[in-house]
């Protein structure tokens, strides 16, 4: 019997893997402290989401999910927190037309729980009750963005 040389095979099916998840940027502002802590009113909270994905090398993509939370009492800002949660993803053997939906739906869906935790922790450390963000349907946001004209914004606002 002749022995055949075993050669490592390249995966022929689609490959999707998380290489790294990290906080790219975290910013917290409490511009009206300490006076703002003396008020007992409930603030108006505005949440903005934005995603961005780009190739860093062949088959490797960096996706950034930016979550901005602003709490206001009338015109006074209680706090503003912005988290840029990022991830490095390996995406190979996927049709080119499927890359953008993966970057705009699957990757932000993976990053969102990490961003949500960072927002909640930062707000809590600033002396406010934690902000717990509701789950987000990134597929719906992606579909809306695809129906907008090209000059449309790359984000969504949630009240």
Question: Can you offer a commentary on this structure?
Answer:
It is elongated and about 60 Å long. The protein has two helices and five strands, in the order E-E-E-E-H-H-E. With 159 residues, the protein is an alpha+beta fold. It has a five-stranded antiparallel sheet with strand order 1-4-3-2-5. The model has no long low-confidence stretch (mean pLDDT 89).
Task: Name a few traits of the molecule.
159 residues, 2 helices, elongated
Distance between the termini: 71 Å
Total number of strands: 5
Shape: elongated
Number of helices, counting only DSSP H or I runs of 4 residues or more: 2
How much of the sequence is in beta strands?
A: 35-45%
Backbone structural class: alpha+beta
Question: What value does the Rg take, in angstroms?
Answer: 20 Å
Neighbour order of strands in the largest sheet: 1-4-3-2-5
Average residue-wise pLDDT: 89
Largest sheet: 5 strands, antiparallel
What is the chain-wise order of helices and strands? Answer: EEEEHHE
Low-confidence runs = none
- Share of residues in helices: 25-40%
């Amino acid at each position: 019997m002749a022995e055949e040389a075993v050669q490592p095979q390249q995966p022929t099916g689609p490959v999707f893997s998380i290489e790294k998840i990290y906080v790219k940027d975290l910013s917290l502002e409490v511009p009206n402290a300490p006076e703002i802590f003396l008020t007992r009113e409930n603030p108006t909270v505005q949440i903005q989401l934005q995603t961005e994905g780009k190739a860093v090398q062949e088959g490797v993509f960096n996706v950034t999910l930016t979550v901005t939370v602003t709490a206001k009492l009338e015109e006074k800002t209680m706090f503003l927190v912005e988290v840029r949660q990022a991830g490095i993803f390996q995406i190979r053997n996927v049709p080119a037309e499927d890359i953008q939906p993966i970057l705009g739906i699957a990757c932000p869906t993976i990053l969102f729980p990490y961003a949500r935790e960072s927002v909640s922790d930062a707000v809590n450390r600033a002396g406010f009750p934690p902000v717990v963000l509701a789950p987000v349907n990134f597929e719906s946001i992606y579909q809306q963005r695809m129906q907008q004209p090209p000059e449309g914004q790359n984000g969504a606002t949630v009240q």
